[in-house]
From TrEMBL, chains A, B:
An example Gene Ontology molecular-function term: kinase activity
Leader peptide range in chain numbering: none
Listed name of the protein: Glucosamine kinase
Presence of keyword Kinase: yes
Organism: Permianibacter aggregans
Length: 291, 291
């Protein structure tokens, strides 16, 4: 029996194969695997990463029929997407489907219970305590994900356009936009950003952190608003009674000095990789079944 | 010599043909004509509306070569789109290209100078005084268009999701969302709204106005924020020295009671249709050329 863990992401996905004793036999990499952005591509990327991991482990493709797979994929908490993924004619002996958020939380705590705040391109909070999983946020762009890079980038672009029209004053953040886009023409900036998704907005988040260091009051207000949300998120997660609290994602370092001192002080490091946590979950799932 | 005016919009476009004396000879209707959403379709819709108007006027297609056309199209203030439209091998004796906003402003004041606040799906302010046109806003969704329906809908959905997670209190606006979407499942609402454009968000604006009537404090705060922006926009437009100020667009009636009393009191009605204003501009353009 083999155990396959997959962490599906918007730009790439990672797979890991382990044995009964939890030893890693092989790892693999695949393309974008967010079923929200295309079911076919997500499934193809997942299988590509798994084949890569099989090869790395020196296993034949038929090993799949003797494997339990656990996939952590974005959006599978949405009923329609969950139905579609579960209808997949997969090649495994068993398939366990969870969200990428669940995997991230399990990974932060080495497969055990705990809570995690995620702030990268998107944001959310997840607590897993016993059989209870609680999720806050993870609502996506542009309507949700407060405290994320995409949210911060959208707030910043909104500010820039109002400043350009003279509705609010122009400070360091305004200048940072012009430097970043190498133009002082707001229409040219709009042309670049029109129709763009969360990643393009998240790329603007660093302008806000940099401008706050230069005492830009608008940047500081945005960061205080975002940090206040993340503090409240931490409070909500802690009320679920997790043994550990972790923060992961590309903006973790940036937010640290803006968080309430008591929250920042109790953040502990993430322990293992998401795909390793997924493989552990596949293993646990197999034992649950045989128990 | 004939004069053709076209008002291009995101869902349809209207054409009007007039003669030397400004008499309307025919009108026509075409499909979506926003070149931001597709250049080919915009040009096809414009030509379809014009052919329709030619037919209505009892004119042959070759009359086009003796016509001056004025097109009011969204996005032609963006350099790349303007270049592309100007490269069009059009069939007219002359082509005058202006934004849909310019046409809206001219229409509000019967072809004369003035200023206009637009609040429908999007928002902006335009002042035309002599040869000087000043535009505020018109930045699009989701980064701009404060005080528009799409902006209000986005603010409302953001509020709903925060309330659903327990970060802010649930009032009339929260309940209005559940009634509107006929579900109390936030994930189902996200599934409906994910990837949607400005029109889908603008359709939520009425929930905010209705909830404010029921004294929902979050709805009231959003409307005060939007109205404050529109007041400042009016102040900026009035500083351009326009002889008249008008407000047009689907939310005009809704905003009226929220605007500062001195602003609301000086709003005057729009005078002619945008396509008629475009035909007038074509006429004026011809006289400028021959002068």
């Amino acid at each position: 029996m083999w155990f396959i863990g997959v962490d599906g992401g918007g730009s790439k996905c990672r797979a890991l194969i382990s044995d009964e004793k939890g030893r890693t036999l092989g790892v693999g990499l695949g393309g974008p695997a967010n079923p929200l952005h295309g079911y076919e591509q997500a499934v193809a990327s997942v299988m590509s990463a798994i084949r890569d991991a099989l090869h790395d482990a020196g296993l034949e493709r038929r090993a799949l029929t003797e494997s339990i797979a656990c996939l952590g994929l974005a959006g599978v908490n949405l009923p329609s997407l969950r139905q579609r993924m579960l209808a997949w004619q997969h090649p495994f002996a068993g398939l366990h489907l969870v969200t990428d958020l669940h995997i991230a939380c399990r990974a932060a705590h080495d497969g055990g219970d705990g809570a995690v705040i995620i702030s990268g391109t998107g944001s959310c909070g997840v607590a897993v305590v016993g059989d209870t999983e609680t999720i806050f946020g993870a609502h996506g762009f542009p309507m949700g994900d407060k405290g994320s890079g995409a949210w911060l980038g959208l707030e910043a672009l909104r500010y820039y356009l109002l400043a350009d029209d003279g509705f609010v004053e122009r400070g360091a953040l305004y200048k940072a936009f012009q430097q970043h886009f190498q133009t002082d023409d707001a229409l040219a900036i709009i042309e670049v950003m029109a129709g763009k998704g969360s990643s393009a907005y998240a790329a603007l988040a660093k302008l806000v952190f940099n401008s706050a260091e230069q005492h830009d009051e608008h940047a500081i207000a945005m960061l205080k608003d975002g940090a206040n949300y993340l503090d409240q998120l931490a409070d909500k997660l802690l009320r679920c009674g997790p043994p550990r609290l972790t923060m992961v994602g590309g903006l973790t370092e940036c937010w640290q000095p803006w968080l309430r001192a008591d929250i920042a002080a109790q953040l502990e490091p993430a322990l293992i990789a998401p795909e390793a946590a997924a493989a552990k979950l596949a293993h646990a799932q197999a034992h649950k079944r045989s128990a």
